[in-house]
User: Fold this.
Amino acid sequence: MQISARNHVPKMVKTIKKGPVNTEVIVTLDGGAEIVSVITTYSAERLGLKEGSRVYAVMKASEVMIGID
Assistant:
């Protein structure tokens, strides 16, 4: 796999919450932190995602916002 994003981690899917339009995919990182991704249900089905599937979590953002109370 070759992509332009530099921030990607190979992991396994912990949980999938499938909806009629969107599917929530939760991936657990080393140390217990989780990454949650919402993708179309069509994409989840096309990728054949299941709990335990090996995936890449790819993060790409043009900006990061910081806020305070």
